[in-house]
């Protein structure tokens, strides 16, 4: 009844959360759920982190919004920290991942235009990708379930098989501006690109004057145990879209680029009303304080080992329920041997929250502040869920 006035675009679980504490969410009736979804990899430093909450409150007492007509010191400070920590020289702030991808696509096209190649506007993308819900980003993702009913597909995107370098080579033409890839496909089922494939893409871009564009909206900001997932391969992009974890739950995204890649983006070529507003900048800077803190990323890697060992054990003991375990850091996926919706229902009944994905995979994306003990508690609840699914299968056999 409560949702009658809302668009019917979500199939929501019948759960109503009132507050959060670290890796826990508490319902209106006081039930505690272990949150291994983190709002789809968003709540990077947990619910109610005192440093981040304090930064938001302090800024809220000063000024909430300023137009980009004016200088915004928080933007300058945040952009400097991001460029110091990454490959990038330039940053454009957005409100979401889809907007960060829109900026990345426009940056790549504008770069080619500014270099005297207006015909170069096409982007090679990959099957199984997810880049957002705007008309351009659903076209970039290429998944029919997101394209259906929204008119002709926005032109300029050529999908090829994920991991197939020869298919990429074949897709490159005189109209190609760049290549766009998630270093780890999230919604596609936690599918990491190999180091060899990432290096081959970089080489191909260099050979043809193309820009390598990374979508690190889900895999970035410490999620895989490095600040950004592409660091594992040693490959440097030209443009990168980030969001989700960078705001810790506050709507915030960013498009990062080298000075060369961003050279076509002159005054008036792009803009945002809310992008980079003072509240978002205060939160983003506070999140970076935590994620760039001494030992934080090592802690993510250490806790990841606890997860990987526990999940491997569950896979061995419940092969009829868990077919495979995949991912990096705290961006983990369990490929179910049963319909994933069935396992997800049992997981939720064990008061554990997880996120569905493609390829019959369930994503485990806990806040990066999760402790080893909380990881073990989550694994125990996942085991209870696997036991429930197994028992149910025996009853119906």
Quick structural gist:
By secondary structure, the chain is of the alpha/beta class. The protein is built from 12 helices and 17 strands.
Describe the structure.
By secondary structure, the chain is of the alpha/beta class. It folds into two domains: 56-291, 3-Layer(aba) Sandwich (Aspartate Aminotransferase, domain 2), CATH 3.40.640; 295-338 and 348-363 and 380-397, Alpha-Beta Complex (Aspartate Aminotransferase, domain 1), CATH 3.90.1150.10. Helix content is 38%, strand content 18%. It contains twelve helices and 17 strands. The chain has helices at 38-41, 50-60, 73-85, 97-114, 135-141, 144-147, 165-171, 195-208, 278-291, 296-317, 340-349, 372-396; strands at residues 17-21, 24-27, 32-35, 90-94, 122-126, 157-160, 176-181, 184-185, 191-192, 211-215, 239-242, 253-257, 322-328, 331-336, 352-353, 355-357, 361-364. The strands form four sheets. It has a seven-stranded mixed beta sheet with strand order 4-12-11-10-7-5-6, with helices on both faces. A hairpin with a 3-residue loop joins strand 16 (355-357) and strand 17. Helix 3 (73-85) packs parallel to helix 9 (278-291). The protein is globular. The chain starts with 16 loop residues before the first strand and ends with a helix. The model has no long low-confidence stretch (mean pLDDT 96).
